[in-house]
Amino acid sequence: MTGKLADRVALITGASRGIGAATARRFAAEGAKVIIAHQPHPERTAEAGAVAAELGDAAIALPADLADPVAVERLVEESAARWGGLDVVVANAAYETHRPWQEITVEQWDLTQAVNVRGTFLLAKHAHPYLRDSGHGSFIALTSIMVDLGMVGAMHYTTSKAAIIGLVRTLAREVGPDGIRVNAIMPGAIRTENEVRWAPDETVAAERILPHQALQRRGYADDLAGAFLFLAGDDSAFVTGQILTVDGGWVLR
């Protein structure tokens, strides 16, 4: 590795597994100190601890319920205190359920927006002073190609991911004068633990997905880590307010 994130501190939410864990590993390999934020659930706690142990002195694991505003603020403060600031924040964690739109309850709708949208906003709000002081602050959110495609059975989730795009573009304008860059990554169909839960048969999932892609292979969490690295480091120093699609050529712009 080239040390592109040497001496930088990165907070990554939803980093106990999947895309978040792959990004944490890549950041650490490039010299960053990484806070592996995770849902305060026994299974996620164990997974986050395993990732942190794998990365050694380059990482710590911190629990936080992103639906709780107080917990979000505490996560940012504890993360910044660990290594004396923050240079990169990756708002990767998301709450997702699938059901017909008429069966979505008010509670499910509100929880989805609270975690995915409000949680991202609060991460940015509380991290702002540290990213400003960094001198090369980068805030990276996660949206989804569901925003462009529409997704039956995921209206609440898709709506939250559409909101992320508006948040990113507006926040980029707001904090640009502070030298902070704000971007988002838009993944396609990525084979993570979450997909396995909904589609355990990988062959069946591939038969459904590959006809839509230009590249005829499945995407995995590691396929996104390089995009996060690009947006986190100096190679993208003049890039802000952008949505970077990483989907194997499903949505062509």
From TrEMBL:
It is an enzyme of class 1 (oxidoreductase). Residues 8-201 form the Ketoreductase domain. Coiled coil: none annotated. Its EC number is 1.1.1.100. Keywords: Oxidoreductase. Belongs to the short-chain dehydrogenases/reductases (SDR) family. This is 3-oxoacyl-[acyl-carrier protein] reductase.
